[in-house]
Amino acid sequence: MAKFARRIETMAESAGQLHALTSSLAGGSLVSFGAGAPAVEAYPFDKIRDICGEVFSGPEKGLDAVKYGGTMGLDSLREAVRDCLLAPRGLEADIKNIMITAGGIQPMNFLCQLYIEPGDVILVESPSFIHGTTIFKMFEARLVPVDLDDQGMDMEDLERKIREYHPKMIYTVPTFHNPTGVTLSLERRKRLAQLAEEYDVIVLEDDPYREIRYSGEHLPFVKSFDRSGNVILSGSFSKIFSPGSRLGFILASDEQIAAFSDIKLCTDTCTNTMAQAIAASFFKRGYYEDHLEYLCGLYRSRRDAMLKALDAYFPACTKHTVPDGGYYVWAEVPGLDMTGMAKEIADELDICYGIGSTFYTEGNPEGSGRSTMRLNFSGLTEDVIEENLKKLGGFLKEKLA
Predict the structure, then answer these.
(1) Phi and psi of 117, rounded to 5°?
(2) Which of 90, 101, 370, 388 has the most other CB atoms within 10 Å of its CB?
(3) Residue 387 belongs to what domain range?
(4) Does one domain contain both 253 and 310?
(5) Which SS3 state, helix, strand or coil, does residue 307 take?
(6) Does 1 fall in a domain?
(7) Do residues 365 and 315 share a domain?
């Protein structure tokens, strides 16, 4: 059998960890705090059913949904991105700079195809989104971690790393960060755009959670402060519409978007036109605003239930984030090996969680994140959250006794 390309070996360990993390999305007997999917109640089934009836009511209306589409995406959905997702948050854009992608993950792959050569440095938050870092490893990039605190990526450490490593790209999830839930502050957003311009480095602003805010005020995109074209924004419809639709978008400069269009043409020709047509109608009918309000109310209650349970039932030494939105709480239990105990906890308690150490890349101190967990609250009801965190907290207290 022919030998696999070197990139497969490069990404193998991260891919294995990612498979383990995403396996909890498929269900099973475990109560999963490790998943990252919307709640079942969050899917707008009735509205999608009605939209499908209209979209497929006849050949004339349904043709756009069943034929090959343009590589850039349906104009109607690109307009929805501009008018419903960007403009209300203060970012003016032209649809010629917006491309619809196959989910929010595809933009990472496209950026690597456009910019990354083997050995190029990408600066990533520590910890960072494992799916992103796995893709970067597939392209044989060298990952260098940047410190993260409760205000997001540390700009002083970032600038030090830029000067030392001369990176090709900086990757950030600035709003309700995955895995920690923290949000990059306003001043740091401005500074990040300045650093991108000053050092001529590309920034991928990955923002799939920003609409799902439960408290605090919406902050401008990092892209809002971009004067050089070095900040590329990617977003997703997975959390606000449906992950099964596999829809996302890129906003970039004229030159970059032309290159992305070439890459996409050679990758999959076009994004799923059926899903695009349905999503575009969802926005055109004016469903989005009420749906978003419903989502935020649903998840706010679940976040609050998780925070309350962590404070009530976990060991007193536990530290955790208090996210203003998104899907995740990041918890640390000093003195316990949450990585090593994951299987025991799954076997004895039927509970699983996101193993914190898997979100740390090479370049971090050995053993980083072993006392941490990523806890997802979006997919579980309040009573299930309380019951199972109470059970897990009691187990952890016994281990510390």
Answers:
(1) -105, 155
(2) 101
(3) 6-44+290-400
(4) no
(5) helix
(6) no
(7) yes
Residue 38 contacts residue 147 (beta carbons within 8 Å): no
For residue 200, how many other CB atoms are within 10 A of its CB? 10
Three-state SS string across 52-113, please? Answer: HHHHCCCHHHHHHHHCCCCCCCCHHHHHHHHHHHHHHHCCCCCHHHEEEECCCCHHHHHHHH
3-state secondary structure of 319: strand
Nearest-CA neighbor of 336 among 370, 303, 360, 365? Answer: 370
Q: What is the pTM of this model?
A: 0.93
**Helix 130-138 crosses helix 6-22 at what angle (to 10 degrees)?**
170
Q: Which two tokens stand for residue 55?
A: 């979209």
The one-letter amino acid at 396 = L
CA 388 to the chain's CA centroid = 25
Amino acid at the residue 187 = E
Q: Do 297 and 190 share a structural domain?
A: no
Structure tokens that stand for 14 in this block: 């991260």
- Compute mean pLDDT per 10 residues along the chain, 401 residues long, and list them: 74 58 56 90 92 82 82 97 97 97 95 96 96 94 97 98 98 98 98 98 97 95 97 97 95 97 95 95 96 96 98 97 97 96 94 95 90 96 97 96 79
How many whole angstroms separate alpha carbon 189 and alpha carbon 192?
A: 5
Question: CA 161, CA 159: separation in Å to the nearest integer?
Answer: 5
**From CA 257, how far away is CA 96, in angstroms rounded?**
8
The CB density around residue 294, as the number of other CB atoms within 10 Å, is 13
Domains identified in the chain, total number: 2
